[in-house]
Write a structure and sequence with these properties.
With 426 residues, the protein is of the alpha+beta class. It contains twelve helices and eight strands. Strands 1, 2, 3, 4, 5, 6, 7 and 8 form an eight-stranded mixed beta sheet that branches. Helix 2 runs antiparallel to helix 3, helix 4 packs parallel to helix 6 and helix 9 packs antiparallel against helix 10.
């Protein structure tokens, strides 16, 4: 009914001022509600007193004053419910709500003093203390705002009343005592708000730093592990191992890279690999493939894990073709003549995370070994695929061409039938 809302998590706020703005909105709703309940609970008692004590006009004025206060608080509550986006707007609502409670009380004191035989604006330290302390407790931010609210009441009471010919100190009460009591009520309230906000600002800064550090570690973790595996690792310390009935693995290797490193500086070698492999990373992300690792100048990706992929063979074939095209563009841009061998095989694997330090997500099984052999026994600027991969790709229409290499001897595998994959001209 009253539009209370949970304070949004700290990560949704970029600055402390944004957080404080929403905090003030939320707490002002609560403060206004308390003020309304306070006034409404006293309204029957005030009415009963008016009816049973000879219908004193001053009592009637007090009832009307409280009705006006209730109406103003309802206006403030409606403004808060419809969100006050600008800081200056929420300041205006804060002061309106505050002065509705505290300043209207002083207006009533002035009228009673002017209309009575004793021209005294009776000071009510209890109401001052209650309103100021409640305000500082429920909305403990923006101490200058609290000070303005208090000064508005004090300036009216200590300046306007004397100008109207009213005494502001009850006979028998020392003026210095009144002023000191008012001073210490305001001082304690404002110091409380100041120190709370200082602590809140420090807490916000610390939380933001922790959040930024966490986001950075999350990004680093996702650069090492696939997203689902990273989540699983965070939730449990158990060994992560899964079997996949069919995936497609790609290995790529730069031809004669060892000889290249002998004539280049270390910085030049690293920069070269970074440029080439960064392009490959973009291709892997575009095709939904999972980069597993780089080993020297070798690049390994897989499709079909950790999340199943319906056309994992087609995705890997498309990436392989684009890898060769990308390297050709790189050669044209840099004036180099770099060649790439690519090998692809399809089959079952086991995947998981191993190690306690510098852990990595890796694959094992004959499928991985065969894909690696497809690459190492391939040809420069060629894409060699196994018979298993060919069987799944041959029904892709006229998108690819396949050139049988004939049975060739593969180290550790014996004689195998392999194919060279080439894109057909569209």
């Amino acid at each position: 009914m009253f539009g209370f809302s949970k304070l949004a998590p700290i990560h949704e706020f970029k600055t402390y001022d944004q957080w404080r703005h929403q905090f003030m909105q939320r707490r002002m709703r609560l403060g206004i509600l308390f003020g309304l309940l306070y006034l409404v609970t006293f309204l029957p008692l005030d009415t009963l007193q008016y009816l049973t004590t000879g219908r004193n006009p001053f009592d009637l004025l007090w009832i009307l004053t409280n009705l006006v206060r209730i109406a103003l608080l309802l206006v403030c509550l409606r403004l808060i419910r419809h969100n006050v986006y600008q800081p200056r707007h929420i300041i205006a609502v804060f002061l309106l709500a505050s002065w509705s409670i505290s300043l209207l009380h002083r207006f009533h004191e002035t009228y009673v003093g002017l209309a009575s035989n004793t021209p005294i604006a009776e000071p009510d330290l209890f109401s001052w203390a209650l309103s100021f302390i409640t305000q500082a407790t429920l909305i403990p931010v923006g101490w200058p705002l609290h000070l303005i609210s208090q000064l508005g009441v004090l300036v009216y009471y200590l300046v306007v009343n004397p100008l109207l010919g009213l005494q502001v100190v009850t006979p028998g009460l020392h003026a210095a005592s009144l002023l000191l009591n008012i001073f210490w009520i305001c001082c304690i309230c404002n110091c409380s708000v100041y120190f709370y906000e200082k602590l809140s600002r420090e807490n916000f800064t610390t939380n933001r730093q922790l959040l930024e550090a966490q986001e950075k570690s999350e990004r680093l973790l996702l650069n090492i592990l696939p997203g689902p595996i990273a989540e699983q690792l965070k939730q449990s310390s158990d060994i992560i191992a899964e079997s996949f009935a069919e995936v497609t693995v790609l290995f790529a290797d730069i031809v004669n890279f060892t000889q290249m490193t002998e004539t280049r500086s270390a910085k030049n070698v690293v920069n070269f690999l970074n440029q080439v492999f960064s392009r490959f990373d973009q291709l892997a992300e575009r095709h939904g493939l999972e980069k597993i690792k780089t080993i020297g100048d070798a690049y390994m990706v897989v499709a079909g894990l950790p999340q199943p992929q319906e056309n994992h063979v087609g995705a890997v074939a498309a990436m392989a073709v684009e890898m060769q095209a990308t390297l050709a563009e790189f050669n044209a841009q840099t004036g180099q003549n770099i060649a790439l061998r690519i090998g692809i095989h399809t089959g079952p694997v086991v995947a998981g995370v191993i190690g306690l330090k510098k852990f990595a997500y890796d694959l094992w099984g004959d499928t991985v070994n065969t894909a690696s052999r497809m690459e190492s026994h391939g040809v420069p600027n060629g894409i060699q695929i196994s018979e298993a991969t060919y069987e799944r790709l041959k029904n892709c229409g006229d998108r690819y061409g396949f050139h049988p290499r004939g049975p060739i001897v593969i180290k550790g595998k014996g004689t195998m039938l392999t194919y060279l994959l080439e894109p057909n001209e569209q």
